[in-house]
């Protein structure tokens, strides 16, 4: 009796874990905005990565709340070769600052570009500004720098640490 119970428990547990990894949502994104070129939000890789490791200060990062948990976004406005503003945020994939009715700029063509959350960047020029939009849902904090190798190892470790007691139990039964 115990054998099959545990077998099923392990299966369900791994399924839950797996589902959490691929559920098509993001839990955390970089979230910051800046004007002008070379601001921390745009270029300070070390500062941004550090922010993902701190619990207390939510500067530069945000826990995404529905419906803004579909993907992470970057809106990058440029003029004459320089950045005029740079925005990272949690996103519903639909609401963007470039769509703000109070904004004089009209980038409606971006609405038709399908970036399918793949972290590809689509850009549109409206005669005054160039705006590039990137959406991604592959990982938390995908809209910014990552210590990808370190993250991979962390994921594997996490999986092992959580699974090990169950695997050991499985073999003891
Ligand atoms: C990202 O979103 C796309 C489109 O909604 C979805 O097909 C895909 O499974 C999602 N990927 C992840 C890793 O959540
Ligand atoms: C961050 O907070 C979570 C839960 O609130 C806790 O489990 C974790 O250990 C904390 N991490 C750090 C680095 O303090
Ligand atoms: C933006 O441009 C599109 C065509 O390019 C037009 O249909 C739409 O009405 C414009 N929107 C605003 C707010 O000017
Ligand atoms: C983007 O592409 C996906 C897959 O090709 C499709 O399901 C989705 O409807 C498209 N979204 C838009 C806004 O065109
Ligand atoms: C997505 O693009 C941003 C900006 O180019 C980059 O910093 C980030 O590492 C990319 N994320 C992934 C998961 O490739």
From TrEMBL:
Keyword terms: Signal
Signal peptide extent: 1-24
Protein name in the entry: Protein sleepless
């Amino acid at each position: 009796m115990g054998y099959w119970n545990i077998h099923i428990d392990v299966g369900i547990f791994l399924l839950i874990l797996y589902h959490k990894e691929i559920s098509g949502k993001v839990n955390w994104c970089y979230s910051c905005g800046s004007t002008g070129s070379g601001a921390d939000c745009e270029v300070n890789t070390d500062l941004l990565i550090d922010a993902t490791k701190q619990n207390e200060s939510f500067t530069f990062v945000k826990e995404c709340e529905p419906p803004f948990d579909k993907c992470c976004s970057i809106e990058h406005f440029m003029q004459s070769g320089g950045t005029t503003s740079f925005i990272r945020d949690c996103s519903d994939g639909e609401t963007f600052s470039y769509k703000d009715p109070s904004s004089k700029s009209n980038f409606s063509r971006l609405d038709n570009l399908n970036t399918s959350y793949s972290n590809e960047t689509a850009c549109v020029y409206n005669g005054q500004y160039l705006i590039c939009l990137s959406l991604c849902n592959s990982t938390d904090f995908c809209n910014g720098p990552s210590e990808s190798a370190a993250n991979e190892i962390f994921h594997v470790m996490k999986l092992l640490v959580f699974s090990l007691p169950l695997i050991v139990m499985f073999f003891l039964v």
